[in-house]
Specification:
The protein has a domain of about 90 residues: Beta Polymerase, domain 2, CATH 3.30.460.80. About 20% of the residues lie in helices and about 25% in strands. It is globular and about 55 Å long. The N and C termini lie far apart (about 65 Å).
């Protein structure tokens, strides 16, 4: 299997960034070191024109270690090239750098992941709940979130 150009360039610029990669079912995917996500994204945007962050989300693989996997979907609007980038996070260090400096839409995506999974985005300027109310306790898309957990009731706000 041959490496695709983005993979080669990222490995050349930062040899420790790419942990794995594949092109299964026509989907090009890079698995990268979470601590180097900013360098990877900078290369993808500047050198390869991935000018759109289509989506970012998180997957909870409890009980697997590392527990969390951030999944980013990028698009080069001109060439229509798509690329998936994954970064794994340990539960004890469930944080990753924000991509807001590259893609303003990351503001909303990162807030959603924070709200539902509890992943912190370092450098995010307004990391607060976006889907649930501020008093909500916990992060309901984590696999260990108790489905019968009672939440504080919200009353009228004066």
């Amino acid at each position: 299997m041959s490496k695709f150009p983005e993979h080669i360039a990222i490995e050349k610029a930062n040899p420790t960034a790419v942990l794995d990669w594949h092109e299964r079912f026509g989907d090009r995917t890079l698995i990268v070191e979470a601590k180097q996500i900013v360098e990877v994204v900078r290369t993808l945007k500047d050198a390869f024109g991935y000018d759109m962050l289509v989506d970012l989300t998180c997957v909870d693989y409890l009980p697997r270690r590392p527990r969390f996997e951030m999944v980013y979907h990028f698009l080069n609007v001109e060439s229509k090239a798509r690329l998936r980038v994954k970064a794994q996070l340990e539960e004890s260090h469930a944080r990753v750098a924000s991509l807001m400096e590259f893609y303003p839409i990351a503001d909303w995506f990162e807030r959603e992941v924070w709200d539902l999974f509890g992943i912190k985005f370092e450098g995010h300027t307004n990391l607060k709940r976006i889907m649930l109310y501020e008093e909500f306790e916990g992060h309901p898309l984590r696999k260990d979130y108790p489905k019968t957990k009672r939440q504080p009731l919200m009353g009228p706000q004066n």
